[in-house]
Write a structure and sequence with these properties.
alpha+beta, 2 domains, 5-stranded antiparallel β-sheet, 5 strands, elongated
Amino acid sequence: MKGKILEIDGTGSWTGKYGEMFTYIVRVKTDDQIFTGEVNAKSGAVGDLPYKIGDEVEFEHEPASEPQYNDKMKIKKEGGYLSGEKSEYKNRGFALRFAADLAIARIRATADQAEFSKTEDVIDQADKFVQWLDS
């Protein structure tokens, strides 16, 4: 769904397996309805969130499993990614890093390291691995 953020209120923090997390209650207005839900973030300051009041966002709303809990929301700004959503850009970054690591490992394993003494040689090797990954 798409909507506009009306309100963001911090409600506290908690510690989980990824360290300290902060909880916010966010209200989003669509064309015909207002949704309220809980969002968790690593940032403790509302100003550090990737979205702010007035932003047009895409979001998912999940009703609470029990009446004593808040509804949950996942929010992304236009062009961003919802948590858990696969990112082609992110996957491409992993592939490029993998290619660079392979190139460096190959260079280290080469008996004649003088052959790979220039940065351009490392980049050339990484490019070859990227082409291989893309094929």
